[in-house]
Amino acid sequence: MKEFIQTLKNIWSLKELRDKILFTLGIILVYRFASYISLPAINLAEVGDLLEHYKSQGGNKQGAGLLGLLSSFTGGAFSHASVMALGIMPYISASIIVQLMGMAIPYLQKLQKDGESGRNTLNQITRWLTIGVCLVQAPSYLTSITQLFLPYAQFSSAYYVEPNSIMFWLPSIVILVAGSVFAMWLGEKITDKGIGNGISILIMVGILSRLPEAFVQEMAVQNGKGGMGSIMILIEVLFWMLVVLLAVILSVAVRKIPIQYVSRAQARGGVNRNLMQGARQWIPLKVNAAGVMPIIFAQALMFVPGLLTKVDESNTFLAGFKNVFSWQYNVLFALLIIIFSFFYTAITIPVNQMADDLKRNGGLVPKVRPGKETADYLDDILSKITLPGAIFLSIFAVLPAIVHGSFVQTDAFALFFGGTSLLIMVGVILDTVQQINTYLLNHHYDGLMQSKLSRTTGY
Fold it and tell me: Which residue of 161, 281, 373, 453 could cross-link 168, Cys pair, CB 3.0 to 4.6 Å?
């Protein structure tokens, strides 16, 4: 505990780091404030009543798939008709599209290799593509909130303007696009002047903002059962901490591939010889190299099985695909995650390029020939560690459905026991803590160098 307090003092004593953290917190405050500003044509109080009525009809489970994911990423702004309803997700979608297109378009491949200027051009392309994605998602979002709530005649006062008129659609689309661009700008400002990856931090903040409400709801349900409620809450919290620990292990687990570098050195006596220099390094291949992307891809496709219910609405098996806590939904969900884990890992980790870079820089894997054999060796190792990583990732994704009902009572709190939300929170926190430690470490080294210089020079 003393070391933790001392670390906080060290963070606060370093002006540059302190200013970055305060700037980041200020941007987060602005983002959260904007998420509570409703669209001008929407009566926010009535929308809240609409949502409660919809949940009471069972819409919470049916809408907890991709729409629930978007709502959690925006901190509830998506489900509250906020000007930030689209949040940062259009930028994430645009980034994924640019990344995937970079594999097929030579121009984008060239930009990826052009260093700083190429990255700036790619960022500009991603920004413009974000606006294009917003222009597609904004009408879809407005269609969902109008078609979802219009059947309830008792809530007709939820709109200040006729929801099917141009006076509702045009201003709302412009405001939603502007809100998403503003969120993108806030994220980039955090990356430039704050601490951590701004886009990821905004997503994490949106997820964390829903945790207190979910926990309070769970406490209310458990306490309503009698004297065992407090004990169950304690058990749930301890189990949740264990799940977080396992998520951390999954996020940081790597397989180290030893690398030996060969250099030409001059031996004593003026004779040139090829010597193996002893600087051994490692290639860290992550067990879960795909991160949360397989879950996001799988959730984006899980609306397709739900469409099958329209073929035969009386079929109970097909009806299970509309409930994110059903076994039908989660079995298919887990299989898709495993498939996308291999797919995304294969397209994002270029083992051939890694082998070529090693050969060019004089590096080699012990007992493996440089070039194609090294690429095949890396690909074989990557395939072997991706399988257990994909299985564990799928378990994390379906864990909310496993604990729901039998262990955790409320839907909202069960969703924090795994899935995209938990992995994003863990990944962003680990990355931010690592950056803070880097600042502290650099400050410590600077201090040692300055003290040694002062002792040497007397100044």
Answer: 161
Are 96 and 135 within 8 A, CB to CB? Answer: no
The whole-angstrom separation of Cα 6 and Cα 12 is 10
pLDDT of residue 410: 81
Residue 436 pairs with which residues in a beta bridge?
none
Provide the percentage of residues in the chain whose pLDDT is more than 90: 9
Three-state secondary-structure class, residue 159: strand
End-to-end CA distance of the chain: 37
The β-bridge partners of 283 are 257
Residue 72, Cβ neighbours under 10 Å: how many? 27
**Residue 457 vs residues 445, 450, 451: alpha-carbon distances, Å:** 18, 10, 10
| Torsion from C-alpha of 123, 130, 98, 201, nearest 10 degrees | 70
Structure tokens that stand for 260 in this block: 């030996």
Gap between the Cα atoms of 228 and 34, Å rounded: 40
Burial of residue 161, with CB atoms counted within 10 A of its CB: 0-12 exposed, 13-18 middle, 19 or more buried: middle
Write out the H or E segment, with its range, that includes residue 418. Answer: none
Structure tokens at 261: 């570098």
Beta-carbon count within 10 A of 57 CB: 10
Output the pLDDT for position 181: 92
Confidence of residue 49 (pLDDT cuts 50, 70, 90): low
CA 413 to CA 9: how far, in whole Å? 34
Query: Are 308 and 318 spatial neighbours (Cβ–Cβ below 8 Å)?
Result: yes
Separation between Cα atoms, residue 78 and residue 142, nearest integer Å: 11
Amino acid in the structure at residue 413: F
Average pLDDT for residues 344-372, to the nearest whole number? 84
Of 353, 360, 359, 351, the C-alpha closest to 381 is 351
The pair of three-digit structure tokens given for residue 125, joined into one six-digit string? 């392309």
